[in-house]
Give the backbone structure.
Amino acid sequence: MNFLCRIVMNEIRKSEYSRKTNETDISVSLELASPKDSSVNTGVPFLDHMLLSFAKHGRIALNLTCKGDTNIDDHHSVEDIGICLGSAFASALGDKKGIYRFGEASVPMDDALVLSALDLSGRAHFEYKGLELNGYIGSYSEELTLEFFKAFAVNGGMNLHIHVLSGSNRHHVHEAVFKSAGIALYRAVLVDPLVAGSILSTKGAL
């Protein structure tokens, strides 16, 4: 694994993305497979905490700011952040040559256990199973986590499955979701020396 990490670290993959609408003004810069620290200010404190965990465990150097109409609702900000982050990720990933493509991770967090699996296939799909996310953590609506990952998967061009296998503490469940998705993403973007500069697909393209 150290050998693979050295290969990845020598291949800088980063991007910048911005999007401004009547509802949100978002700027994102990121670097994949990076040990650098991240900075996140979304205007939604719980999402800040989740995205910092996602970036840390996904080894993504993430700088993100959002000014949104949170005086109305957090929905516009959270969904648009997913759109921007997915778009920035796809740009940073580039032509996908040499990557493992598939990634998965199971993350336990006290009572919670979450499995995330993904394929950077270019075919967008998001699937969630498990605990119904229809409550609140403070002022944060749990369903927004699903809105974020759906937007992220669609705009990132990935097939993403998240299964909550167990859990009763809502904070633990959400944090395990973001951490497992981050780790799965990191494993998928690692460079496989056996694939070299080619695409891991029988079609020859992703």
Remarks:
- The two ends are 25 Å apart (CA to CA).
